[in-house]
Amino acid sequence: MKYRMVVFIVLCSLLSYGQEKWSLQQCVEYAIKNNVSIKQSDVQARLTRLSSLQSQMTLYPNVGGGVSTGYQHGLTEDPTTGTLVSSSFISGSANLQASYNIFNWNARRNSIAANKLYAQADEIGIDKAHNDISLAVANAFLQVMLRREQARISEVQLNQSRSQLGNTRKLVNAGSQPELNAIQLEAQLAKDSSGLLQAQALEQQALINLKAYMNYDFSLPFDIQSPAVESIPVENIADLQPAAVYQLAVATQPIQKMYKLRIEAAQKEAKAARGLMYPSLSAFGGMNTRAVNAKYPVMAFAPPDSTNAFVTIGTTQYKVFAPSVRQLGTVGIPLFRQLSKNFGQSIGLSVNFSIFNAYTSRTQWERAKVNVVQLQLQDEQENLNLKTNIYNAYQDAFSSFQKYNAAHRTVEYSQKAFDISKKRYDIGLLGTLDFIITQNNLYLAQIDEISSRYDYVFKMKVLEFYKGQGIKL
User: Fold this and answer.
1) What HEC string does the chain produce?
2) What is the pLDDT of residues 286-319, one digit of tens each?
3) CA distance between the termini of the chain
4) Entry pTM
5) φ and ψ at 48, to 5 degrees?
6) What's the rounded mean pLDDT across residues 315-337?
7) CA-CA distances (angstroms) from residue 11 to 101, 164, 221?
8) For 128-143, what is the mean pLDDT?
9) Residue 149's closest CA among 454, 416, 445?
């Protein structure tokens, strides 16, 4: 019983969650948290932050050490005495080294500065990804609203055709109109039904595209909160002159800031590459010790033994005695005594310079300078693209505004024509085909008007976006 209650509560929660209607702000916030491209930008920024941190650590000395041990058998060199012995023993050693680059013509500091700038650029790249996905989500959101409005108009058209067919069928049954009129309206009704199904399918496709930008689970129910297109605030197009919008966009758009930082980073890299062509001064030091567990013989001198040999000095002969040495046993040297006795230290300075390395260093410097020029050209191209996009967006918005006004007038005239046609059709002064044509003209004019209205709103929102106002409905 408890299990069923839990399942019921979970299902109710999911149902209520699915029935929630999402505003544009909610869709954008969800997309920023879950969109894959934004996550990729965040990962890239984390990688460059790690590279920047690693380069900063080069300001500190390099310190390393090691401990080794091994077994040796037979004739081999004693690591503590340096003599060849025939024995079996275990030896060990320990060492600690440190080095520090004292001066390298600021190559290291320029590399650190370059990595910091690249990290800052990738952080701004996250903002660029946020802006890109916000604009894409806003466009997809408006597409859903457009498709939904088109479906609503198609449904109105279908209801009108159904109502007109009902009235005509009554007149046909009464004998005041021919059967052909009803058949023609039935064909129109079938066409309108197909148009409504197609409009509803396009609405679902628009919802799927919006879910894709948000990285939202396709299997979950989802719906948007559609404000009336007339209530969406739009600035006066006269206040969005392209030259003024461009000046604001250059100062506020993330991609322009990102390229400026990358150019500065590339210039630092070029200085670092040039510094590596000159000599560098380094300091180094180290400590080491070693020990073995070998046993060494303990020798003692005994009284000399007489031999049969004589040495004649002058006229006197002297008997030769041979010294006698005896081994009393073996003894090992204590470990800590060996470590202390064999402890060594070293310290010094080194100057490193390249005489000839197959033009590698100079080529790296030349490539770094070319990279600066390449980034400068990319920045110039991005500024040109931005200006082109803004001017095109302004012209598109102006054209959309004119198109919307024309479509609005077309709807007014088509509505008047339809009203007159309906009155004439009802009294039998207009044929069915002519009436259907007038009705279709009104339907197409309404579709064109709403499409032009949404297109104009989106074009204006793009201009507002470039102006730095973000996306809002």
Assistant:
1) CHHHHHHHHHHHHHHHHHHCEECHHHHHHHHHHHCHHHHHHHHHHHHHHHHHHHHHHHHCCEEEEEEEEEEEEEEEECCCCCCEEEEEEEEEEEEEEEEEEEECCCHHHHHHHHHHHHHHHHHHHHHHHHHHHHHHHHHHHHHHHHHHHHHHHHHHHHHHHHHHHHHHHHHHHHCCCCHHHHHHHHHHHHHHHHHHHHHHHHHHHHHHHHHHHHCCCCCCCCEECCCCHHHCCCCCHHHCCHHHHHHHHHHHCHHHHHHHHHHHHHHHHHHHHHHCCCCEEEEEEEEEEEEECCEEEEEEEEEEEEEEEEEEECCEEEEEEEEEEEEEEEEECCHHHHHHHCCEEEEEEEEECCCCCCCHHHHHHHHHHHHHHHHHHHHHHHHHHHHHHHHHHHHHHHHHHHHHHHHHHHHHHHHHHHHHHHHHHHCCCCCHHHHHHHHHHHHHHHHHHHHHHHHHHHHHHHHHHHCCCCCCC
2) 999 998 887 777 776 666 766 777 777 777 877 7
3) 47
4) 0.78
5) -70, -30
6) 76
7) 66, 44, 13
8) 91
9) 454
Tokens read off for 145:
């609203």
* pLDDT score recorded for residue 80: 65
pLDDT of amino acid 305: 67
24-60+104-278+358-473 carries CATH number 1.20.1600.10: yes
Helix axes 179-214, 432-466, angle to 10 degrees: 20
pLDDT tens for residues 115-135? 999 999 999 999 999 999 998
> Residue 288 contacts by C-beta under 8 Å, 6 or more apart in sequence?
93, 94, 95, 96, 343, 344
Domain boundaries of the chain, sorted by first residue = 24-60+104-278+358-473
Mean pLDDT of 456-470: 85
CA-based radius of gyration for the chain: 45
pLDDT value at 396 more than 50: yes
